[in-house]
Amino acid sequence: MEDRKVIFSGIQPSGGLTLGNYLGAIKNWVKLQDEYDSYFCVVDLHAITVRQEPKNLREKTLEVLAIYMASGLDPDKTTLFIQSHVPAHSEAQWLLNCYTYMGELSRMTQFKDKSQKAGESIPVGLFTYPVLMAADILLYNADLVPVGKDQMQHLEFSRDLAERFNNSYSPTFKIPEGYIPKEGAKIMSLQEPLKKMSKSDENKNSFIMILDTPDDIRKKISRAVTDTVGVIAYNDEQPGIKNLINIASAISGDSPETIVARYSGCGYAQLKSDVAELVVAELAPIQEKVRQLLSDKSELERIYKLGAEKANYTASKMLRKMQKKIGLIPR
Ligand code: TYM
């Protein structure tokens, strides 16, 4: 047990989760939980970097935990917890803030995108958000961080910060590696297939939510933007078709080449309808379990309390180590 490599990852409970979150993150985590000592967190403190309605935040936090469990994350094999239940995350963030440069945070593309939308009143939390993410990862000495492509820049920053701290004192943190799934790494918008699928997109047809009804899923995929080439192929000139193939591949495990061969001579409508059925079949059992878990919250409560206990133990040990190296007097 002790020698197993450690994995850490998390998802924000800011609104519902998309098929991108599922294929880019959760589905992979399920595969990794047997092999690694894993921590999967609902990062509620990250979610409040943009304004959340309190009732909604509470609901979404439990919903994300329910989706984790319904997707196959097994609390007997992995630690599932809520970020704000482990105060070491916020404390470690403060410490790490003191080793972070304004310049490097200003270069984060996610910050640049989000701050443009926020205009004059950009919350400081949005700026220091990658430092909290670094704290999440480094507190558990994670070897591997399974994320979609969009989070790689934040992970690079966590690595830089770990090295900076290690060099300032003595080896403290492992340098975490990113782990990106092959086909689900970046699920694109169904309406603008050059853009990432994102729940914050204004066009509701551009994303599929994990909890969307089968009919909505079918409708959204049938309306997915494609091209006028008319041949099913896997290349960057046909990003809409490529995205549908990636979705099919991430769900079925078949390679894009196998899928292209299967559809030789077929039209786009056939591909769309098959991909829709694949997605519906993948998500239906998850939705059913989510409903069960949310109808009686006692099981969720038991799991997040257990998870917080385990995570607190590991994280506070690392926090004490950091404090000691910095020169803070032990309690
Ligand atoms: P978040 O909540 O935006 O997304 C959660 C995970 O889903 C992946 N993802 C996607 N993958 C493929 N295609 C997409 N369209 C897509 N959209 C989202 C993301 O890459 C991510 O893996 N800062 C992080 C959460 C976080 C975290 C951490 C992650 C906080 N602390 C520590 C890893 C380790 C975030 O906002 O992810």
From TrEMBL:
<keyword id="KW-0067">ATP-binding</keyword>
<keyword id="KW-0648">Protein biosynthesis</keyword>
<feature type="binding site">
    <location>
        <begin position="12"/>
        <end position="14"/>
    </location>
    <ligand>
        <name>ATP</name>
    </ligand>
</feature>
<keyword id="KW-0436">Ligase</keyword>
<dbReference type="InterPro" id="IPR014729">
    <property type="entry name" value="Rossmann-like_a/b/a_fold"/>
</dbReference>
<dbReference type="Pfam" id="PF00579">
    <property type="entry name" value="tRNA-synt_1b"/>
</dbReference>
<feature type="binding site">
    <location>
        <position position="136"/>
    </location>
    <ligand>
        <name>L-tryptophan</name>
    </ligand>
</feature>
<dbReference type="InterPro" id="IPR002306">
    <property type="entry name" value="Trp-tRNA-ligase"/>
</dbReference>
<dbReference type="InterPro" id="IPR050203">
    <property type="entry name" value="Trp-tRNA_synthetase"/>
</dbReference>
<dbReference type="GO" id="GO:0005829">
    <property type="term" value="C:cytosol"/>
</dbReference>
<dbReference type="InterPro" id="IPR024109">
    <property type="entry name" value="Trp-tRNA-ligase_bac-type"/>
</dbReference>
<dbReference type="GO" id="GO:0005524">
    <property type="term" value="F:ATP binding"/>
</dbReference>
<protein>
    <recommendedName>
        <fullName>Tryptophan--tRNA ligase</fullName>
        <ecNumber>6.1.1.2</ecNumber>
    </recommendedName>
</protein>
<feature type="short sequence motif" description="'KMSKS' region">
    <location>
        <begin position="196"/>
        <end position="200"/>
    </location>
</feature>
<comment type="function">
    <text>Catalyzes the attachment of tryptophan to tRNA(Trp).</text>
</comment>
<feature type="binding site">
    <location>
        <position position="187"/>
    </location>
    <ligand>
        <name>ATP</name>
    </ligand>
</feature>
<dbReference type="InterPro" id="IPR002305">
    <property type="entry name" value="aa-tRNA-synth_Ic"/>
</dbReference>
<dbReference type="InterPro" id="IPR001412">
    <property type="entry name" value="aa-tRNA-synth_I_CS"/>
</dbReference>
<feature type="binding site">
    <location>
        <begin position="148"/>
        <end position="150"/>
    </location>
    <ligand>
        <name>ATP</name>
    </ligand>
</feature>
<keyword id="KW-0963">Cytoplasm</keyword>
<comment type="similarity">
    <text>Belongs to the class-I aminoacyl-tRNA synthetase family.</text>
</comment>
<comment type="subunit">
    <text>Homodimer.</text>
</comment>
<keyword id="KW-0030">Aminoacyl-tRNA synthetase</keyword>
<dbReference type="GO" id="GO:0004830">
    <property type="term" value="F:tryptophan-tRNA ligase activity"/>
</dbReference>
<feature type="binding site">
    <location>
        <begin position="20"/>
        <end position="21"/>
    </location>
    <ligand>
        <name>ATP</name>
    </ligand>
</feature>
<keyword id="KW-0547">Nucleotide-binding</keyword>
<feature type="binding site">
    <location>
        <begin position="196"/>
        <end position="200"/>
    </location>
    <ligand>
        <name>ATP</name>
    </ligand>
</feature>
<feature type="short sequence motif" description="'HIGH' region">
    <location>
        <begin position="13"/>
        <end position="21"/>
    </location>
</feature>
<dbReference type="GO" id="GO:0006436">
    <property type="term" value="P:tryptophanyl-tRNA aminoacylation"/>
</dbReference>
